[in-house]
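Sample entry follows:

_____
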Amino acid sequence: MAAADRINTLPSFVSGSITIHYYDGLSDDLLTAGVGQDGLMDAPPTATDPENPTPAEIRRATIINQYKALVDLRPKAGYGTLYGPAAPDRFSTPSSDGKVAGKEYIAYADDGSGQKNVTMMVQIPDNFDRANPCILVAPSPGSRGVYGAIAVGEWGLKNRCAVVYTDKGTGIGLHDLNTDTVNRIDGTRGTVAEVGTDANFIAQGTAEIGLATYNARYPFRLAYKHAHSQQNPEANWGRDVLNAIKFAYYILNIAENFGLVSGSEVLRTITPENTIVIASGISNGGAASLRAAEQDERGLINGVVVSEPNINPRQLPEKQEFSLKQGNKIYPNSVHGKPLFESITYYNIYQPCASAGTEIAFGWDPAKGKPENGGFLAGSPGRCTALRDAGLLNGNTLEEQIAESQKLLNDFGTLESTNIIAHLYNAAFVYAAIAPFYGNAYGRFSVVDNLCGYSYAYSDGSNPPSAKPNADLANDFSSSNGIPPSARTNLINNFGNNGAGVNFRYSVDANNNLDEYLQGALCLRQLATGTTGVTTDTGTSLSGEAANYCDRIQAGIEEILASGNLQGKPTIIIHGRDDALLHVNFTSRSYYGLNQKIEGENSQLAYIEVLHAHHLDALNQAFDIDTQIPLHYYLGKALDRMYDHLKNGTPLPKSQVIPTKPLASTGGTQLTIEKNLPDIDSDVTCTIAFSDNVLHIPECGSCS
């Protein structure tokens, strides 16, 4: 290291002040906000003044809510024994309650404009291993705030590593146009005039429409940072992760931590030369870490371990194409590797119909069939009728329309094993939420653009939007995933209620079908295909404003495509085969194949596909699902393997399918490693291989 590089200097991108808090591991802590492993299973404490919670109250509620949002907290699923704050793992024995004492530093990364304000946070446990320093990098999943990856950070804190988090410029940034209030970095709220450049996010109008004009025409609307920042945050996720690592090194080396005071200077003792850095993450966070590894020119990252990444692999030229093969089924290059906007807009059209005959109920595993005590429909019969009226389905009966919709979805390139889980995702409005949200982000649209007639607001039933209550605004930072419908913010069809707006769920078309705003879904789909049809080979080419909007979105997607070049970095990707959001054929499988084509023998990427696992472990708890296993368990195991490899030189795992056995298939009262959760590289796993331009993925169980 050059002498100048040894001097610890504040990175130029750090904006404003750095806040620091110490948590004693008793009344409060880094991992559980003072409630311990058992307390995470309970609802967070209510603020003394719900409309004006304190920063400490917000932090506690946020950690609890964000942990619960990612993890299956049922003891029978392994929480508390196989994973969780107090569960021992290969290299650590945590405290009995899982609490971790230490320091927490928070700051913005910005370019001086106050418009980016990416939140970064470094947690240093009291027992940080100075002799064997390590840093775990945990970008937030989804559009969550900086505490969104707290369940990922758990591994680092338990293993005496510093953990650095970044919200990667996506959340939670909520601008209520009605009250003109915004979030500060700590989740408290104030008016734009009060908060200024300390705001997480301030919405902007356009040259044609200012915020005041828009608010008068569309009252009570809400703007969200990821969707409405007009910056396409995803384009910068890799940089945000690398900046977070640089920030972590700075914090670790300040004088009060591990810096060496030498006269008027502080020298670094924790450096890339003596520190293990593992970039991790779930979903969007996983994609951010992969993108960072691709862009890491300074060797800041030693290894990568991600779960179910929202990675959008670039397509190779025709002569370099490859196919996926699972069992006897082949998915050609034209089918796999679809970008998220391409797949989500298609699902947003047909899944509401595919789920229209499925009843579900909380506490009832949908794999068992119709709930014994009744439930609610996961989909929309009105959407089926509307699709038939639009000539997008041929079936005459509801049953025929449901079956046809399901076939269209599977023919699109998705696995049949995802179909049951997709009903739950549809009922949670996952597809309806993501399609307009990401369209706004990729196209760099303002809240005033009302892309495809959508907006966001609080509303009651089928009534027009109204003011979001102050207590709900105050609670949004801690409870929201950043993508409405969430935290009592609804997705609005602006044309409903004679132009006053209606929750999209209550949209009625011209034929009086309760169709969940098919018009908006088709508009978004056209911006994906570039035609007036639902596929690129149907309809006619877009023109005018629609063509311009399509070009903007496609340009944004081009900015976020992954190269597949991990520069030889040791990497493990974990993905559940039954993921009904980020389908394996469109994401991890395709990315792995791309990496093999790009890096060849220099690749150190292992792809591990887990049977009976999907994208949202928390739904296993909500619906008491015993036909799926918690994927989060295997993220911890993969982190153990990577740490062992980087520290001790043990081999990386092979690419493989892990044939788990859910509790429903083995019986018993709790998942066990012996019966249900085979270890990585155990004898029952089935090898994934890439040869002759084909990625071979065995069904597994029979290893065919």
Residues 544-560 form the longest helix (17 residues). The chain has a mean pLDDT of 97. Residues 3-70+101-171+232-307 form a domain with the Rossmann fold fold (CATH 3.40.50). The chain has three domains: 3-70+101-171+232-307, 318-338+561-697, 347-559.
